[in-house]
Amino acid sequence: MAERVSLTLNSTSFFLLSPPPPKTTTTMSSSLRTTTAASHLLRRSSSSSRSTLTLSSSISFTRSLVSSPLLSSSSLSQKSYRNRVASVNRSFNSTAATKCSSDPDQLKNAREDIKELLNTKFCHPILVRLGWHDAGTYNKNINEWPQRGGANGSLRFDIELKHAANAGLVNALNLIKDIKEKYSGITYADLFQLASATAIEEAGGPKIPMKYGRVDASGPEDCPEEGRLPDAGPPSPANHLREVFYRMGLDDKDIVALSGAHTLGRSRPERSGWGKPETKYTKEGPGAPGGQSWTPEWLKFDNSYFTEIKEKRDEDLLVLPTDAAIFEDSSFKVYAENYAADQNAFFKDYAVAHAKLSNLGAEFNPPEGIVI
């Protein structure tokens, strides 16, 4: 869930830990993997009864959607890009929010459509980021819904979509627009979290214990103020991560586990201000080349983020200040060392943390939620 990130977040692919894009940029940094990762996924999918490719955030949790049919802002004139953003915004803002509970059958069918989308667009990182950024605005000190923020679908409104940390997420909305129109009985809040969890699982990650039934925020007046999402390069990275995630009600274990989603995606300097223009891992597809990834196989969800950050042997792999902090801070380091040595432990804790994040601030109908 990169996609600045920070959990990765601010504007790269890890929601909470991705590098934040400059406020002046409207480009998207969706993440994609290398040819090696693509071939790995192809081999994996060919052995399954379903021909689905598994991959991909921000963050992610937000890198560039290189194999998406969407054009990056760098390849569009400023005017045409603005027009496309406006068109997507009109589509989402004009559709009434689903105030009742999501339909279980539609949720199941939408999940299959999301898998197909992932197979063809390699958009796992940006879908992780979409779910994370909608949920990551939660403030546990505010009781009222939807003022408290969190997973309520408010990210679809233009005022929140234009927050600097959400640069490029208009492309994620564009990707899932047809699915939302097809399944009108699903709330935006549920669709965002369904897409995020499905992307993790299809990339080879753990099964997320999700529940659905989230109620949608009804209008732009329900959007949180800007500035609730994490930054990737603050003066005191460990303290910053705690300030942001403790406000959400998450703890040190959650912070480190969620940071592991940076195993997916890449960061582009022209979009986020972080990373190299190109590396040996990103000079080829799938999708447009370029950017810098955290791991060699950046469309595969595993524990390689922790092993690579720990060793710091490869200059072609990205290490943000917030990444380095998980091995420098004494409390974070206990979990990071464990995850580097034990992928099963990482998967177990990540699944719990992702589910916890996806429920933040949500109003459920029915109160106990829906399991599909």
TrEMBL record:
Cofactor: heme b
InterPro entries reported for this sequence: Ccp1-like, Haem_peroxidase, Haem_peroxidase_sf, Peroxidase_I, Peroxidases_heam-ligand_BS
Gene Ontology CC terms: chloroplast
Family: Belongs to the peroxidase family. Ascorbate peroxidase subfamily.
Keywords in alphabetical order: Calcium, Chloroplast, Heme, Hydrogen peroxide, Iron, Metal-binding, Oxidoreductase, Peroxidase, Plastid, Potassium, Transit peptide
Comp. bias intervals (Low complexity): 24-45
Protein name: L-ascorbate peroxidase
Biased segments, Basic and acidic residues type: 267-283
Keyword Chloroplast belongs to the record: yes
Organism this protein belongs to: Capsella rubella
